[in-house]
């Protein structure tokens, strides 16, 4: 059995998780002031001037009416703009603004993970024109090695952090393009998805170390210059990325996916606790407790691979350890350990909204109707507050902002539509395509 060490010890080796808001702070304070020359005329962002749909005051008699209004407000929040560098024909290439209400350059920035979520949502909900536009942008942004960078500005063609690669982002982009391409018969999207899958296969770690066979976290860092070449493969694996990579490889390279799943269960699953560890390096396991690995995505992934018993264990662990009661809101914290300045003891009412919505999806698929209903009710309440769009977090804590966010909003839409229609959202499903063509 591997020797476990605390997260703090792993930090000294550079083996750590970096929250999105730490990356945003770096961008706003360091990168954005530099600017990108005079190329700003080649792309433009037009703000949508729409008055938010009003939510009626909730009563026992109008629950569905309120939910419908919350759904409309969430859809209305998703601000899709032209990404001019990728517009090569009569149809516009598009990108979703990740934080459209944010001030300054962040308000016009798009994170590739969010574009992948938006592509999945628009494709699944039948909004083909928007889906096609986002697919064009993702195809355009794919790196020569098959990967994707982390984020890009929609105003400046040079503002694409292509050199900063995280394999969770790569997997979501490949998955979304594959789903869209198969659903609408788009061979270019399918080719891009296959290239992404091949990149992930090549990013599996070798040797005889503890992390062998798992997919590396990626290469380079948030501070890497934009025009830097691919750096050395990072010698550690993040559990969340393994879930993401597996559902891509299961579609395009099933034998590789099978071997990856075996290593995930051998190395990362903590049998005594009934959950996954958060990450692993060559000689040490990081057994910190993160909602995505320990509960929400862990349970969804296990269920998608037929491991229902373990899925229930993982889900129950999250219920027991991450649950938050914040008055009228119900949800889950992101961590149960101190990570990057986050202290769960100091944030007893904190709700990580994106993770909470994915816990609702796990609850729904595992038959826990009561929890699923409480989570979707939280989504409705947040969507109906103030401006439309669900926040990243219900309270300001280190690493988590209360800004309305595309990712939180889309995960709510996934949960709401799956519960309303009985059709599974296109996330964490075992979809294997015919790859002989």
TrEMBL record:
Lineage top rank: taxon: Bacteria
GO-annotated biological processes: carbohydrate metabolic process
Record Gene3D superfamilies: 1.50.10.20
Entry-linked InterPro entries: 6-hairpin_glycosidase_sf
Official protein name in the record: Uncharacterized protein
């Amino acid at each position: 059995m591997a020797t476990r060490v605390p997260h703090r010890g792993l930090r000294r080796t550079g083996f750590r998780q970096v929250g999105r808001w730490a990356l945003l702070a770096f961008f706003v304070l360091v990168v954005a002031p530099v600017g990108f020359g005079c190329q700003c005329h080649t792309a433009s962002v037009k703000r949508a001037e729409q008055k938010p749909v009003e939510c009626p005051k909730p009563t026992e008699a109008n629950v569905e009416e309120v939910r419908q209004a919350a759904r409309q407000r969430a859809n209305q929040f998703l601000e899709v703009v032209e990404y001019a560098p990728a517009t090569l024909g009569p149809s516009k290439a598009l990108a979703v603004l990740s934080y459209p209400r944010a001030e300054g350059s962040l308000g016009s920035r798009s994170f590739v993970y969010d574009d992948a979520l938006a592509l999945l949502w628009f494709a699944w909900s039948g909004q083909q024109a928007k889906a096609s536009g986002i697919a064009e942008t993702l195809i355009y942004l794919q790196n020569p090695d098959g990967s994707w960078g982390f984020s890009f500005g929609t105003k400046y063609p040079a503002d694409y952090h292509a050199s900063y690669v995280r394999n969770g982002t790569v997997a979501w982009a490949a998955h979304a393009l594959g789903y869209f391409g198969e659903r609408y018969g788009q061979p270019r999207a399918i080719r891009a998805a296959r290239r992404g899958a091949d990149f992930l296969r090549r990013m599996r770690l070798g040797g005889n170390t503890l992390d062998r066979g798992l997919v590396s976290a990626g290469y380079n860092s948030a501070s890497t210059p934009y025009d830097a070449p691919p750096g050395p493969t990072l010698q550690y694996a993040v559990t969340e990325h393994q879930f993401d990579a597996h559902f891509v490889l299961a579609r395009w390279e099933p034998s590789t996916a099978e071997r990856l799943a075996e290593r995930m269960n051998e190395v990362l699953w903590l049998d005594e606790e009934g959950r996954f560890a958060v990450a692993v390096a060559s000689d040490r396991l990081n057994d910190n407790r993160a909602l995505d690995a320990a509960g929400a995505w862990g349970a969804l992934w296990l269920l998608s691979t037929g491991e229902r018993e373990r899925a229930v264990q993982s889900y129950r662990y999250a219920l027991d350890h991450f649950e938050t009661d914040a008055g009228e809101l119900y949800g889950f914290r992101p961590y149960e350990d101190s990570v990057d300045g986050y202290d769960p003891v100091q944030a007893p009412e904190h709700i990580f909204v994106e993770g909470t919505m994915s816990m609702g999806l796990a609850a729904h698929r595992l038959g826990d109707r009561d929890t699923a209903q409480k989570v979707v009710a939280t989504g409705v309440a947040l969507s109906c507050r103030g401006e439309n769009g669900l926040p990243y977090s219900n309270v300001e804590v280190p690493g988590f902002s209360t800004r309305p966010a595309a990712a939180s909003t889309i995960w709510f839409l996934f949960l709401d539509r799956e519960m309303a229609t009985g059709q599974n959202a296109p996330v964490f499903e075992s979809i294997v395509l015919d790859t002989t063509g």
